[in-house]
């Protein structure tokens, strides 16, 4: 089986995600879900409010109806399409204007307006990814939000440990139709704060011809 590219730990580099119907989820439903998640109830409610606030601002500005918004632990992910670079920048600015936004990942593409069939294909891919996550004994699927745009799968959530985070990205990469996996999943540190994932540094390959001593050796 061919392994697809997986990008991890990009929180410091990128902005924006999805959630057209996120504002319709009530606080009571949020509480029930958050009890079993790594997010607290308060964090989950704040994320719903943040995504709803941003989506409302995008719709009121026009020409941004094909942008999806997701928020998790204060990180806002924007996906979708706009017709100009100026609108892409404007969308990110609106995302930052929400009072609970802590980081923005802007994955909006500059493209002509899309159609139903392209979006439907992405929904099928998201469903396949969720199915793989649910079937994995190493991953708590309830902690992971899946968004797909143009065959690129974006993962968001707060995981128990680095092993779960990496396994989730690996499982997603094997789902049918996935071209790439970009993970914005994070961890909770010893103080209870949500923090970016920092992959372990890969040691440089050993070079027998390289001098081992310092100056004068």
Task: State the gist of this model.
The chain is α/β, with parallel strands linked by helices and 217 residues long.
Q: Cα-atom Rg, whole angstroms?
A: 19 Å
User: What's the N-to-C terminus distance?
Assistant: 49 Å
Percentage of residues in strands: 15-25%
Tell me the overall shape.
globular
Decide which structural class fits the backbone: alpha/beta
Count the DSSP helices: 5
Average pLDDT, rounded to a whole number, is: 81
For the record, the count of structural domains works out to: 1
Helix content: 25-40%
Number-wise, the strands total 10
- Give the helices and strands as they follow along the chain: EEHHEEHEEHEEHEE
Largest sheet: 5 strands, mixed
Poorly predicted segments: 9-36
Salient structural properties:
single chain; 217 residues; alpha/beta; five-stranded mixed beta sheet; 10 strands; 34% helix; 23% strand; globular
Describe this structure in words.
There is one protein chain. With 217 residues, this protein is α/β, with parallel strands linked by helices. It has one domain (6-196). Helix content is 34%, strand content 23%. The protein contains 5 helices and 10 strands; from the N terminus they run ββααββαββαββαββ. It has helices spanning 27-34, 41-61, 85-97, 116-134, 162-173, and strands spanning 6-7, 16-17, 67-72, 75-82, 103-106, 109-110, 144-149, 152-159, 180-188, 194-196. Strands 1, 7, 8, 9 and 10 form a 5-stranded mixed β-sheet that branches. Strands 2, 3, 4, 5 and 6 form a 5-stranded mixed β-sheet that branches. β9 (180-188) and β10 (194-196) form a beta hairpin. The relative contact order is 0.17.
